[in-house]
Amino acid sequence: MQQFKEFFWFCAGINRSLIKRCPTDTAKYTGIGAAVFFTGLLAALSGGYAVFTVFESVGWAIGFGLLWGLIIFNLDRFIVSTMRKQKKAFARELLTASPRILLAIMLAIVISKPLELKIFSKEIDRKLVTLEEEIYQKEIIDLEQRYTGQLLSIEAQSNQLKDEIKTKTEKRDALALAAQQEADGTGGSGKRNAGPIYQIKKADADQAQSELAALNQNYQPLILQKQAEWNTLFDQKQTEIANLKRNPWNGMAAQLQALSILGQENEAIRIANIFILLLFILLECTPIISKLISGRGPYDELLEIREHYFKNHNLERIAEMDHSTYKKIRENYAMDIS
């Protein structure tokens, strides 16, 4: 038990010889040291998990986790050990701790995200399936849009040729019907004969038939060519769609996006994210808060006396050295004069 206490005293960065003379302060500094240690441990675990989420390498995760934990541990130990409890100087102590508090907020934002991803992993996995399908469908739509313009252009050209043939066919049919009605007396002059009027209408119908035949002869190969172009382009589009792969979309950026969307869609998840972030900020600030809220005790009095003693001792030694130097200068000056 004593070894644990001394280890936590080391974590708090205090003087063991002085703390042993202040038994009423041992529990306080044991708690502060424990806060420093477990904050560093939490930072190591969170940093290691964050790296594992990105690289999926146990070795890199352990290495970075240990390094990150030692950095945070050393930083907290330095700040806690250099904070001096003074009478009515809370504002000064808070000012000294403010850089670490700001750093704790930034660290909490970074470190809390991997934990949030782990906590909401089931919801995120379901959302990733939906987002992956949306991305896949968007890729199909984008691919189809690249071909739509070309397909519509070819189809429009083919339809234009067909419309011209259709118009010419309708004109031929109308002229042929008029000639027939003139011949059987159901139309035109109303007389049943093959007279000159019929001959004129028959000639017009024959002329329209000749024009239609020539038009078909010229346009049908073009229509077949356009249809072949359309079929080739359509088959090419279908081949690209068939070859389109559903790339896995489950990286950290994708998970963060899914978590953000879930927070917008689900109020409970959004509130939970806020509380997780606040919890990490509180945990990161625990060593500083512990030192700030702790009162001034016997250890702080002894530490101030010890530091004041060394300060006065140094001033005394400096004064003695200055006096000795001035004395030598005067002696040398007197010898030079004589």
What is the rounded distance between the termini?
Answer: 73 Å
Return the domain count: 3
Structural class: mainly alpha
Regions with little confidence, pLDDT below 50 for 5+ residues: none
The topology string of helices and strands comes to HHHHHHHHHH
Q: Total number of helical segments? A: 10
User: Judging from the principal axes of the Cα atoms, what is the shape?
Assistant: rod-shaped
Mean pLDDT reading:
79
Helix proportion range? over 70%
Rg computed from alpha carbons, rounded to a whole number of angstroms: 46 Å
Instruction: Kindly estimate the percentage of residues that lie in beta strands according to DSSP.
Output: under 5%
Question: What composes the largest sheet?
Answer: none
The total count of strands amounts to: 0
How would you briefly describe this protein structure?
By secondary structure, this protein is an all-alpha fold.
Note the main attributes of this structure.
3 domains; single chain; 338 residues; mainly alpha; 10 helices; 87% helix
What's the SSE blueprint?
Elements: H1 2-12, H2 16-19, H3 26-55, H4 58-82, H5 90-119, H6 121-184, H7 196-243, H8 252-265, H9 267-293, H10 298-337
Characterization of the model:
With 338 residues, the protein is an all-alpha fold. The chain has three domains: 2-124 and 252-296, no CATH class; 135-243; 297-338. The protein has ten helices and no strands. Helix 5 packs antiparallel against helix 9 (267-293) and helix 6 runs antiparallel to helix 7 (196-243). The radius of gyration is 46 Å and the shape is rod-shaped.
